[in-house]
Design goal:
single chain, 363 residues, alpha/beta, Rossmann fold, Helicase, Ruva Protein, domain 3, Arc Repressor Mutant, subunit A, 3 domains, five-stranded parallel β-sheet, two-stranded antiparallel sheet, 45% helix, 13% strand, nucleotide-binding, EC 3.6.4.-, DNA damage
Amino acid sequence: MNPDDTSSETPTPPRPDAAERLVGASADGEDQAVEAALRPTSLGEFVGQERVREQLDLVLKAARARGATADHVLLSGAPGLGKTTLSMIIAAEMNAPIRITSGPAIQHAGDLAAILSSLQEGEVLFLDEIHRMSRPAEEMLYMAMEDFRVDVIVGKGPGATAIPLELPPFTLVGATTRAGLLPPPLRDRFGFTGHMEFYESAELERVLHRSARLLELEIDAEGAAEIAGRSRGTPRIANRLLRRVRDYAQVKADGRITREVAAMALKVYEVDSRGLDRLDRAVLHALLKLFAGGPVGLSTLAVAVGEERETVEEVAEPFLVREGLLARTPRGRIATPAAWSHLGLVPPPQTPGAGGQQGLFGA
């Protein structure tokens, strides 16, 4: 089948609502409020990211010893891993105020100039999704980061005048989920770059126990392990699942979170043992049951699950690929042997999908 084929005569299952995914890594209003209450305030309290924490600790301690502002910091990694939290910790460790904005909010150089000109000395400016900032603002940021100066253009045409504006020393903390989209001139101006990795289950268990204490919940070790194993290596998802399990425990159990309670609660919310939700399983189900494991084009697969192509590619696929359940090939998407096993299915003999899998992954 052509990977770009957009035709399909397959039946369309009920459409999973990607906007309401319990295992989505983006933060909504409720997540932001809870994160504010659960957020650690020092590097010592921050769980996980050992290498980044150790390196960042040296950067901040050295800056404090010199009595200088910290170098500009770039944090990259998937959503929900703690980039915003680390930016606030940087401000707290440097005993400095923090100002938070985002790349999409800065569409003109004047927007950035207004923010920069109002910064205090030593202040931390957190710029989330920095790769989505407009190009004129990006070019203004080069000079601001390097020389602590911006040129404000007054007037238009031949009579326009550039007025240099001196800025107080500040620390820019940039966060991005797509570091490859940052232009090299901007990336090179950061004194420290940290890449945030997905968390191990043991680290997520520590996150859950800490969150449970702050939320005044009773959770045992096995209950925390059950939730951690379904959290996709992401603390934000772990805390979100914890809140939903708490709701179930309060209504259906005695309020105490055990392995059995956690498993029953997450079954209600359709999050399986590997953290797959309805959308993930719909993609795998269509790939296995309707297309015999593939290869199948992305557009055809999207039609089969009743979703937009971008939703399948950007929301479901990354986790399925990372879990080794789906693979991208020049001919289209194929299911791996692990996908058949996870859904309790046996690959049909002598099918293009099975043959493709044997060729890629061995018999």
